[in-house]
């Protein structure tokens, strides 16, 4: 689920005489927005201040003026992307007419031809949590909200008589763990895993756990 803004080509640097002075918060946002597709394509380890400046169409000095380090830019970019990504998933689930449809929409959205970019950034975010407690707390909160969305869909399906589950919260934890594992396999392709197969594994898990079948 990659937004259009994440697929825009890098901006060309603008001559100083042609630049319009912008408020600090606007310029910071512009720089962070430009960093999102860079990280999604290359990973944080391969993105430096020069690449960010070129993508944003500003000078290196502008980046260092607004941010203490390139890591600060990359950190804000990861958070921005992840919040957008899960907001889109939440919106899709909210439109579902039933619990089962909501889970199907989530599964379809988790694995598409575009979502490798998201998963690359998600695992970078995950790794950052090992070094930075702010990231660790943010990721824990994100998992809590994600688990709650899944739990709510399962509970909804149970009320509708479609699902049979004694502990929707436990199911949510295991569903998200399987999704993470499939995403990592999908990124590394060892062994190979297609989008269709990743979706099929999740659907089989849902059927086995909530419907007593593995169709």
TrEMBL record:
Ranges of compositional bias, category Low complexity: 12-21
GO MF: DNA-binding transcription factor activity; transcription cis-regulatory region binding
Coiled-coil zones: none
Keyword match Cell membrane: no
Ranges for region Disordered: 1-21
Domain HTH tetR-type: residue ranges: 25-85
Gene3D superfamilies linked: Tetracycline Repressor, domain 2
SUPFAM superfamilies given in the database record: Homeodomain-like, Tetracyclin repressor-like, C-terminal domain
Name of the protein this chain belongs to: TetR family transcriptional regulator C-terminal domain-containing protein
Organism: Streptomyces malaysiensis subsp. samsunensis
